[in-house]
Amino acid sequence: SHVINTFCKKIEDAGYHPLVYANDYWLANKIDLSLLEYDVWVARYGVPHVFENAVMWQATNTGAIEGISGHVDIDFQLFE
């Protein structure tokens, strides 16, 4: 989590709003959430995510949008 926070701080210092992008498995097993200082964008396809505090959810990477050829990500902003 220290590396994540350091990277996100650099992004924030450049004037952007960083988000930590990960799937439920990584959030539950690989990242120490008690040290995480930034908002989370969770990826979980086909079913809702189980991570409780996500600000965004990537629901699929095989979505379809009229006028765009090929697959697109479909994401939902959960909080402002």
Secondary-structure map:
Elements: H1 2-13, E1 20-23, H2 24-29, E2 40-43, E3 54-63, E4 72-77
Parallel strand pairs: 1-2, 2-3
Antiparallel strand pairs: 3-4
What does this structure look like?
Helix content is 22%, strand content 30%. The chain has two helices and four strands. The chain has helices at 2-13, 24-29; strands at 20-23, 40-43, 54-63, 72-77. Strands 1-2-3-4 form a four-stranded mixed beta sheet. The radius of gyration is 14 Å and the shape is globular. The model has no long low-confidence stretch (mean pLDDT 95).
Query: What is the average per-residue confidence, as pLDDT, rounded to a whole number?
Result: 95
The level of helicity is 10-25%
The sequence of SSEs as H and E is HEHEEE
Structural class: alpha/beta
Low-confidence stretches: none
The rough form would be described as globular
Radius of gyration: 14 Å
Number of helices: 2
Beta-strand residue percentage: 25-35%
Major sheet attributes: 4 strands, mixed
Number of strands: 4
Taking the alpha carbons of the first and last residues, their distance comes to: 23 Å
Biggest sheet: strands side by side, in what order? Answer: 1-2-3-4
Describe, in short, the structure shown:
The protein is of the alpha/beta class and 80 residues long. It is built from two helices and four strands, in the order H-E-H-E-E-E.
